[in-house]
Specification:
3-stranded mixed beta sheet, 2 domains, 9 helices, single chain, elongated, 251 residues
Length: 251
């Protein structure tokens, strides 16, 4: 295993690249340059703008030759018959996996000149990342403007859904209201930005019936936390949750 900052060079459980569900799109006339909109978004540094630009951009996924059928590594590297192609995956010290993707041929060459660029739509790259057990993508990891696309962004890209910060997510707000309003004493649910994790976290504001004693408050919050723990929607779209309790407004 060679190259900057990576521990694993592998396909899915040894499955050859041939026949994998990451076909390149017919990007006729593609000169390998980055999308101007994506370059501008990266320079701006706002995740919501980067996510929108990535969704509309062509990305490059790096693949490499791996030894197959007993070929010497040198032969496989030259692309001789019998060498398979594999997606390159980054694995951190904590075991988390990430798919490296690139905005341009130049940023890929900066990272690894031996890797072959496969041009794909962002949704296909995200689907490949999920299939490989990744929880994020890393855009242009060798710079000049590296950017991590975390799990909620990755899932939104894979599903063809626009990503917005969770405090602005109308579907999340509606889903959490439907989940929590059946809890006794809950009169309303609102979302606000998380004070420490504005992009990926949310402050969940619960309006509770006024006059609850400590026992009633504890029971209500336990029921709320149990429902939140089982919510796939919350797990998919939010990385940090802060609960805030306020009394319901009088009618």
């Amino acid at each position: 295993m060679t190259g900057p900052g990576r521990d694993v060079r592998a396909d899915s459980a040894g499955v050859p690249w041939a026949g994998r569900d990451l076909p390149s799109a017919p990007f006729s006339g593609d000169d390998g340059a980055a999308s101007p909109a994506l370059t501008a978004a990266l320079a701006g540094g706002r995740l919501v703008e980067v996510a929108a630009a990535v969704a509309a951009a062509r990305l490059l996924v790096p693949v490499v030759a791996v030894v197959a059928h007993g070929l010497p590594a040198a032969d496989a590297a030259r692309g001789d018959l019998g060498a398979d192609m594999a997606i390159m995956i980054l694995t951190g010290a904590d075991g988390r996996r990430a798919l490296p993707v690139f905005s341009a041929a130049g940023t890929l060459a900066r990272w690894d000149r031996a890797a072959r660029p496969v041009p794909v739509e962002a949704a296909r790259a995200a689907l490949a990342a999920v299939a490989e057990g990744c929880d994020r993508m890393v855009l242009d990891p060798a710079g000049p403007l590296p950017c991590e696309l975390p799990g909620p962004v990755l899932v939104a890209l894979a599903r063809g859904r626009e990503w917005v910060p969770p405090a602005q997510d109308a579907e999340l707000r509606t889903g959490l209201a439907a989940l929590l309003m059946p809890v006794p004493e809950v009169c309303g649910v609102r979302l606000a930005p998380h004070p420490q994790h504005e992009d990926l976290g949310v402050r969940l504001i619960l309006q509770l019936r006024a006059g609850l004693d400590q026992g009633g408050l504890t029971a209500t919050l336990d029921a709320v936390r149990a429902r939140l723990a089982g919510s796939d929607l919350l797990a998919e779209r939010v990385t940090a949750v802060e609960l805030k309790v306020v009394p319901a407004r009088p009618d």
